Amino acid sequence: MPQHSKHASKNMGYGRDPKYAAKNKLRDHFNSGRHATTITHSERFNLFIDWIEEHHKIYDLWNITNGHLLAYAEHIKTLMNDESIAVSTAHNRISSCNVVLKIMRGDNHIRIDKIARTLDKKRCYVRSRVPDGIDLNKILKAQHQLKNSGNIRLAAILGLARTLGMRLREAVLCDLQRIKMEARKFGLINIQEGTKGGRRGAHAPRWIDIKQSAADAIDFAALASPPNSKNLLKPNETYISFIRSVVRYKGKSLGGYGIRKIHDLRAAYACERYEQITGHPAPVIAKRQAMSKDELRMDKEARKIISRELGHERIEICNSYIGSCKR
């Protein structure tokens, strides 16, 4: 329901401020769930609002036309060509405009369908930058410093993400006592909690070999777990509140430890596993000029293993973690 019915003719009844209106409409649309999605789309859409208010003096979302959106896309294209923003960022900004305008309007009349054609450049999913956290000793040092500053749960997340390839949600919600028992009994753990796409339970096993560094990370996380909790959340704490108060707030300081984002630690895990399996550095670290048939076969096998360990179905997704072996 619109929050300000007396202003129903402006911004679809969600207030005079387009930014406020868009954010609250997204919250209503997602039933106050999917907090991260709401924030992400809102932040990107706010950049569009800033631009359209400055250049077209438009303060009502009803007045936005396809012409305005195409003009904004040209602005984004200029930023991309000047290398002020990445190709992926350009795609994401336009995609969020499509999403928010569709939700606000209830139709698809104002949108850009072929973003890659509009920007004259396809989005590339091949990693070209070496991920943060390759050096495990630096992660251990960061954990030690975070622990001493009272951020032991954030420190635990770094260890789980780096040594087990866990996503942020998986690291926060994993049953620490269960995986500690599995590690001790089998030398393997099965990542089940917090996974994407319904991949949990016996029908979607995701077993990971436990090295000493991973065993240490699990022990550390078990110590960081609050009393009467099986994971990193306090008994009465929600995942969203934890992300807001601990990860997002404290995570701002991770740049001081050489970590731009926690997800990079997952890529660092993948790069380490590639070298363990093939005996060669991951392509993003040191691309080989030529590979024999046996090496190409081993590369493909490594990608299958890593993809499965990361919780993906397609081996192509490995390109975004370890890079491509193609020239």
Strand line-up across the major sheet:
1-2
What class, by secondary structure content? mainly alpha
Query: Any idea what the shape is?
Result: globular
For the secondary structure, the number of strands is: 2
Helix proportion: 55-70%
Number of domains: 3
From the alpha carbons, calculate the radius of gyration and give it in angstroms.
23 Å
Largest beta-sheet characterization: 2 strands, antiparallel
Estimate what percentage of residues fall within beta strands.
under 5%
Low-confidence stretches: 1-7
Return the string of H and E elements: HHHHHHHHHEEHHHHH
| Secondary structure tally, helices | 14
Question: Overall pLDDT, averaged?
Answer: 87
End-to-end Cα distance:
53 Å
Would you write up a description of this structure?
The longest helix has 22 residues. The chain has a two-stranded antiparallel ribbon with strand order 1-2. The protein has 14 helices and 2 strands. It has 3 domains: 115 residues, no CATH class; 126 residues, no CATH class; 56 residues, no CATH class. The protein is mainly alpha-helical. The chain is 55% helix and 2% strand. Helix 2 crosses helix 4 and helix 7 runs parallel beside helix 12.
List the topology elements:
Blueprint: H1 18-29, H2 35-56, H3 66-81, H4 87-105, H5 115-119, H6 136-148, H7 152-164, H8 168-173, H9 176-186, E1 188-190, E2 207-209, H10 212-224, H11 239-251, H12 263-278, H13 293-310, H14 319-322
Antiparallel strand pairs: 1-2
